[in-house]
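Moderator note: this is an archived Q&A kept for reference. The question asked for a predicted structure of one protein chain; the sequence and the answer are reproduced below.
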Amino acid sequence: MALNTNENHNPTIHKFESMLKTDDVYFFDAEDFEEIIHHYLNIGKVTLGKKAIQIGLQQHPNCMEIKLLQVEVLVFEDQFTLAQDLLDELETIDAHNEEIYIQRANILSKKDDHNGAVNMLRKALILNANEDNFDIYSLMGMEYLFMDNYKKAKECFIKCLDVDDSDYSSLYNVIYCFEFLEDFDGAIVFLNDYLEKNPYCEVAWHQLGKMYDEKNMHKEALSAFDFAIISDDTFLGAYFEKAKILEKMGQLNEAIACYETTIEIEDPTSHAYLRIGKCHEKLGNDELAKYYYYHTVHEDPLLDKGWLAITKFYYRKENYERALHYVNKAINIDGDNPTYWRLNADTFYALGNYAEADFAYKQAVELGNYEFSTWSNWAKTLHHLKDSAAAIQVLLQGLEFYPNHAELIYQLSGLYLTNNQQDLAKEQLTIALQLNPKKSKVFSELYPEFQQVKWIQDTIKRSPKAST
């Protein structure tokens, strides 16, 4: 059975490979060698490409095109000095060949000299002024992307679309630039203009819908996704994005129908199951929600959002034992996920298992979870364990991330009191009242044992906006 029917049906390639197998010598035109070399380079068979270059130069030693392909291979293999020397030689023969400057640009790009690469490509543009400059503008656009110059990159990719408006790679790059520039209005204008000329381009409609979504223009986004689906009724991305918009608009049953369509068109995905589960949970269909959450983690056991969804489902139902079971399964799969450890800690805290909660909060923080509530809950856990000194240190760490967070400072004040550090307690309570007097109830809720302490009552009363 043929492994590559394209090769066997190409007589030039077939003839070349027969020559290699038999050690016979066949003559090929220079154009044939170009075709053979391009073929092997395009399919990643560089060794055969180099062999074709070697034989090609033996038969056509002065062929500029074959030598330029030799340069391309040298650049690919990072043999820049040899490539530069060969380009210098070729430039003395034909200084007006734009491919020489394109290859010089490739070398400079691989050396991270993107400005130099752009300058070389500009020279190639001048030499190629009356021809199709698609490839040059595409390369130049990529160089500008490397330099984070999204405005210039966008202009280059738009020029590519002027040459070939069906080049979706350039279209995606244009929208990518608009997004980085946060010019969603500009993207909408551009896409609407593009769609005037290409009204059945599902990719453009899909991207337009996403831009409308960024602007919270949900009705317009829905219309765009509908047109994408009309243009291609198997376009999964459009169904999925439409479903997400419907979900945002509270049209949950319609969203479920769209997600289910993606499953009908192609093999089910964990993301579709997850979104359907969330919709059912919002509708109060708990059994269906669980059904789809279980399918999510079955379809993709490494999808953290699936495990988080099922854990949070049981946590909200106050079924903490089940929540703990699933978050522990998640930790067994990915023990370096800080969100898993944070959920694990919260669940142990809800179960009153403070020692385990302390360990889990410590793991979450060490792995990079620095949320406000993580510091607050960890300090509460240590307070339950009657380790006020450790709780104080936790809050001081938290305040490095949230230096003016009144709730943490109220919490810290109470812990200083618990630890018999009254002066520090007064200082922190005063700071907290200055930052947010309305949050003083946090202090009384966390430390009811200090409610009747006179200086505390007086300090709070002196703050006129404090809640009563």
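Archived answer notes: The first helix runs from residue 5 to 9.
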